[in-house]
Amino acid sequence: MNKLWLNFALNAPQIHSDVDEEMDLIHALLDAVDIHQTLTKNSLDLAAAFDLLIAAEYYKSVVHSGWVYCPSDDQPLLLYPYTNICPRCILKGKFEYHPANKPGSSGIGNATSKLLPLFIKTLLERNGKKVEIRKGIEPVDVFFIDRSTLPVTVFAAEIKASPLVTLPLAVISERMIEMGEGDEVAKHHSPSDLTQLFKARLFIYVPSQQVENVWSGKLYELGTKENPNDKFWSYRGIRQLVADRTFFSDYCSFWYAAFNSYEQKAANSVFWFTNACGQPVPRPDNWKRRRKGQGFESVSDSKSSVGMDRTDDIKKGIYQVLKISSEGKQPFPSAQDETSTMSEDFNLKVGIISNIHAVRHFEDYLKPLVDIVWTRENSRQIHTVADLDSSKPVFNLFDGIITLTQTLSRDDWVSSYFSFS
DNA sequence: ACCACGGTTCGGATTGGGCA
DNA sequence: TGCCCAATCCGAACCGTGGT
Known about the structure:
Helices cover 32% and strands 19% of the residues. With 421 residues, the chain is an alpha+beta fold.
């Protein structure tokens, strides 16, 4: 039963980016947000920008397989989608199944739980705050440390990060033909390898609204992945792209629409680009069945939810903050602890950090809990606060839930420190 | 250096609640 | 009642860490 994590919070290793490309992209994204936000004043820009950072991470692992050949329009494309459909056909209202290209769980978890703290740190620093982020241990993911207060304030955070959308990659293809009944015919919509991946001109496919609810894809050039070891091609590409105001403005318009449809489960074709969009409606006759059972594939499973919106994750997060608070804010006195000297005195705050607030599940899963305060008391005779020793401290279940889209705070320090604008 | 361990995310399988 | 889908349960794959 040690509380090492508490004693070493101030001395834990600092989190830093070991590659320039990451910090370069973060700054470029925040520059783009600054410029765009002065025009639109839309509070979603930060979260939209963060999705591009995750996208850069996803695009790292693009491979030759997993592309879909889409012959429609005058320009055939090979597309590399991140939900289970052809992204171009869906904009015409047609569900054309093709498996999504989510990278494996392993690397991505680590990357995002580092990228979100770095993104927030950079953001706060650009607003003139001094920020230290340190690697948490045991139940804590990351510590945010504010040394401008006395005593020092330490925010112990549980991190949950997951993108709303990852836009498909695209390459321009020549029109393909195949053998039909003894004659060559135009190749139809089908899975295909991109045999010339390296040095191919890779684009991001951005849905752009023509007229009310009519969308069509625009291609923005990202650049090239030079060879298998070219890990940061997408970081370079997106950094250059976001300097283009047209791109960022188009992208944000799309992202707002996607966010709205995610929130309302609206009947909008860009809805099908968002994670956790569920089953296609109406389901086409030839829609793919699941491997087992009589169910059908989804476009994107409700489990692959957005931000902190996965139900399992909310529950896990609440347990974590409760455990951290209980151990950290009101330590059990024990002989062992008396002898161990706390390296420094600090004020502990506890909360959850995510890219996007719990849009769908706040009402059912979080709202009933937000106003809970607690204390530890082993008497069974407590029925009102008056039964408690009046000097007994009482704590918040969490001091804040900080996300790029919305901050829920129950603490003055949290409110002022994590104000993003 | 190696290994065992626990933590991460993702996604397949199962459960169960709401609705026709 | 039976069907459908989101919620939940659980395991795979993988990573970092701490002990030997």
